[in-house]
Amino acid sequence: MARKKRSVDSGSVLFDVVYTDGKLTSNRKVPSTDLGGLDGDEPARAFIEAQDRKIAEMSGTIRGDIKSIARSSRQDRPSRQSRSNTSRP
Hints:
- The protein is α+β, with helices and mostly antiparallel strands.
- The chain has one domain.
- Helix content is 28%, strand content 25%.
- It is built from two helices and three strands, in the order E-E-H-E-H.
- It has a three-stranded antiparallel sheet with strand order 2-1-3, covered by helices on one side.
C-alpha cells in the first residue's frame, strides 16, 4: 500500500498595505513560504511591490510607493454566526 505524502504548508499570510498617497489595500496575499527567517516580513514588501509592478504593466495605472505594511488582523471582524444572531429579534 502506498504511503500518504505529507502535506506541505502552502498557506498564505494576509497583509494590509498603506501607500504614500494615503490609499489602503487590505488582505494582500503573500505565500508563507516567502516569509520567515531573519528578514521577518520584509520579503512581503518585495513580493507586493512585484505584484504592483505586474498589475501596473497590465492595467496601465501606476500604484504609488508603499509607505507601510502590516499583517492583517482578523480578530476585529465578527464571525458569520455572530452576525446572523444579532440580526434576529
